[in-house]
Each structure stands twice: as C-alpha cells, then as structure tokens.
Amino acid sequence: MLDDATPTIGPIAGLGAIDCDVHPRLPVTADLLPYFDAYWREQAPYRNIDRLELTGHPVSLPPYRREGAANGTAAEIASGLLDPNGLSAAILTLVNGTQALYDPYMADAFCQATNRWLAAEYLDADPRLRAALVVPFQHPEAAAEEIRRHADDRRFVAVVALAMGERPLGQRANWPIYRAAAESGFALSIQSGNVYRHAPTQAGFPSYLVEERTHMAQAAASQTMSLLSEGVMTEFPDMKIVMAGTGATWIFGMSWRVAKDWRGARVETPWIRESPEKILERQLRLTVGPFDAPSDMDPVLVDVIGSPDMLLYSSDYPHAHAGPAGAWPRALPEDLAPALARTNPQETYPRLEV
Fold it and tell me: Could you tell me the domains of the chain?
C-alpha cells in the first residue's frame, strides 16, 4: 500500500553524503552568449532562441519545482540542499532541449556553450558541485569531441542522455560517445526527458499526465535492454550506466524476463556470455530519489532489485517530493545509507574526487 507519512533526512545527516542527481536552472540565451563562438553569438538572438525547456520535462512547472527553490543558482542549491544536509558533493544534471534540436550543428554549439556556462556559474562557484556533460547525441562525432575536450576537467563526471530520445541508446551510431566516455572514466547518466519523436508509450500517445509519468519506467527498461542487447555493456564494461529519477522497482521484473528469454534467443547476441542479470547488477545503477516503493515493503526488496550496490543516493532537487530536500526513502533500510551515499557513488563515478 502507499504510505503518505513524511520522510526525513534521517541517516544522511553527518555522512558527508554525495547526491547523485541535482538539477540546475535552465540557461537562457543571455546566459550562453558569452560562451558561443562569433557565429552562434549572432545566430541565437537572430533565430529568437531562448529557453530550451523540454515539453516532456517542464522544470518551470509543478511538480518539477519545490516551493522556495525558484532560481536554481549555485548559491540557492547550497542554501537549500548542500548546507542543510551536510553534503560533500552533488552531481548536477541539466535536462533541457539541446538534445531535441533537429539541427546537429546547432545542438553541438548549444551543448558546448552550456557546458562552459555550467563550469563558470556552478563548478567555479562551489567546490562541492560536480556536473554531467551535455552532448549532442544528434552528432555523435561532435559529442565524442566534446567529451575529450573536457577530459582534463574532473569536475565533469558523467555524460547526459535522454531516456526518450530519437533512437534506442544502444545502437552503434552512439558508440563513439560511449568510447570517448569510457576512455576518460565518465559514467552515462540517463534522464527521463522526452523529445517526442515517437509516442511515449509502446501503445501510442496517452491522454493524462499520470499515464506518462508511469510509463517513464517503461522507457528506462527499454533503454536498459538496448544497451545490454546491442553490446554496449559488454564492449564498455567499466562505464557505469545510471538510470536517474526513474525509480527502481521496474528493474526486477525486467531482469527476470530478460534472463529467461535470453536463454532461448541468445544465438543472436553472442557477446552476452553470461546471464544478463549479472551484467545488469555489475553495470546498472539506479538513483533512489524518488523511490517508488511503499515503506512497508518487505526488506527483501533490495535483494530482489539485485544488490544494494546498484542504488545511489539522490534528492532529485529541486523537484518537488515529499519531505525535506534530500529526504531518505522510507522504504530503504537506514543502515544502507553509508553505501548508497558514499561508497556506491565513488565506485560509480571514477572521476569523482571528494
């Protein structure tokens, strides 16, 4: 049953926790102009491009914005999240429309400018902040170049992808991105944004928000299957894949199903040389903010998911969830806090230095 009791910070206090999913504000053109080259400094205002907010991730509207967290600047993140919870680090993930642009060259320009803006406005402002790179999946070669361009800046620890993008993430067209990421120790952070190139469900377009929110877990499962089946997980075994903001309870049904069906169809995927759930347990990670299980769930839940090693502490700040920012999920045993908030993030993000 659902539990409406308010969660609390609980076991996070005093740990020096690492928050694996925090969202900065979306930049507007005026923010990015100093970081464009001369051509795009002229073109962005001329084309009247301003705030690239995804329809499928409308962060300016409830429930994406908790009360009192309106601006999302580095100072506001510090006062609203880092300081009250005593966090040692927080990983910023910007989810906006750069990966939805049809023009691959425009997408590349906006990604480059956005990453420079993140570094200047957030990473330089607070030493506790880290970030995920925004790269143009529309232009994999340029995305790989952007990753290598930032390889020496270890404040960038991951690469952002959208769960509902233009194509399955595991397909070979994206492999230059993963090769560049793996070479420099970046994780892949998959967020639940949607570019609406396709219907958000396998049955078509839904009518209501509750349908679309529920089906985000379907997108996470689909991309997990793509990355596994196409061979990304076996080709790049050191690159952890983080499903952020999608919950965690979807994974055990999917992993049981793929372990069963793979046995009958494995001739098609000879690169999968062991039962798939073992690969998933080794490489897939799930953030726990928000966590989609009731507090009276049997403690065996974590074992059914796969392992506590697969879970990462996160607040999903500043999105609006029950309790204070960064509250510990009531469904999870409190004795897991040191692993989820310290050990697991450090093992998931090799570039993370705290």
Answer: 13-348 (3.20.20.140)
